[in-house]
Amino acid sequence: MQKLEVFGPNKLKGKIDISGSKNASLPILAATLLSNRKIYLKNLPKVKDIETMINLLKSLGSKIKFKKKILIINNTKQTNKIASYKLMKTMRAGILVLGPLLAKFGHAKVSLPGGCAIGTRPIDIHLKSLAKLGVKYKIDQGYVHAMAPKGLVGTKIRFSKISVGATENLIIASSLAKGVTILKNCALEPEIKDLVNFLNKVGCNIKWIAKRSIKISGVKEINENSYSIMFDRIEAGTYLIAAAITAGNLRIKNIKSDFLKTEIDILKRIGSKIKVKKNEIYIRGAKKIKSINLKTAPWPGLATDLQAQMMVLLCKANKSSVIQENIFENRFMHVSELNRMGAKISIKGNKALINGNTKFAAAELMATDLRASVSLVLAALTTKGRSIINRIYHLDRGYESIEKKLRRVGAKIKRLK
Ligand code: UD1
């Protein structure tokens, strides 16, 4: 099993190019199932989750190849409607193939998904909402068996809770439904806007009609076209935090700073000096980090996917801070590993009380989920001596060439095989 070895402390200096967004690529890849033509996708990140989604699409009959970094997906002969457990077990976003398969074929059998163990993560909102479009389903032996005997028919749906995945699944499914679908209480994450932009580019008819409401007029078919995926704002946020925590000096490139306003604001408040341009951000981390209380929230609030990284940063703050996790009930798995390194973090319900002024001690560590893993890398970067991070397959699911990107800006980090 591969590990990362980090010799700290490291002060990061230089520029980092941000890759394409994993969380925007996954629904867009799933949405290509709607098509009977070729779709060309640019700026996909080279990470394991994307590989898994491509393998899932291939298992469903999509013909896929890379040509000069462009992914060409050809669904002219796509026939299989069964998404197996083998491909769904590691990645929750696999459930996003359910909507397009139902829209295209009227029936599908999809394994219940796996993914990060950061909460119970049910798919009830996906299923209840699809039922409103005319889908009948049952769950049997770990699979969702779903069919739409009369095809999908547009209607009004109000999500009971804001869910990124359910919003995406329903936008994709409704794109080929008969008539008009109105979705209310939608998630507004930039990745959802990227999905809508992609679908409109290939001929769908989707409009935002109010802050959290979307109107989708179903179309009969999807056109051939190309699309370039947005940048990964979580990767960008992680490297901004890396600069802040190491008192480093980084230039974060290939981004849109508008999508990082919340993170930039927090980092300024804890003392970092930041200069924002449209497509890049310059950050200089302060020697003294100020404490701050934070809570995660749906966009435009602080992303839950940056909570673990922010927590490491606040371990280094001058006083104690509180982070309230409002999206996933079990997303504090990084805390016990950080405490093993000398942090003093206690959990009460969905709040973490973080004592500041932590001097981390180098240790051998275990990654538990995608963002928890990267928080351990951040901690190790600030720590004197040799730290080892085990089980980095979690990290490889979502961070492209992390050790190479960090090495280029001065980190002493190596992959051990
Ligand atoms: C997506 C992101 C993930 C991010 C999360 C929240 C992708 C591939 N993943 O995950 O990185 O952390 O958004 O921003 O884009 N819920 C239900 N029933 C459902 C669906 C969700 O109760 O049917 C709950 C979840 O358990 C969670 C909350 O709703 O408590 C939000 O989850 P959701 O927004 O759906 O997250 P994902 O789409 O899984």
CATH homologous superfamily assignment of the largest domain: Enolpyruvate transferase domain
Average pLDDT score: 95
Distance between the termini: 7 Å
Low-confidence stretches: none
Number of strands: 24
Label the structural class: alpha/beta
**CATH first level of the largest domain:** Alpha Beta
Q: Assign the CATH topology of the largest domain.
A: UDP-n-acetylglucosamine1-carboxyvinyl-transferase, Chain
| Shape descriptor | elongated
Largest sheet: 4 strands, mixed
CATH architecture of the largest domain: Alpha-beta prism
Strands ordered across the widest β-sheet: 22-23-1-24
What's the domain count?
2
> How many whole angstroms does the radius of gyration measure?
21 Å
Bound molecules: uridine-diphosphate-N-acetylglucosamine
What percent of residues are in strands? Answer: 25-35%
Helix content: 25-40%
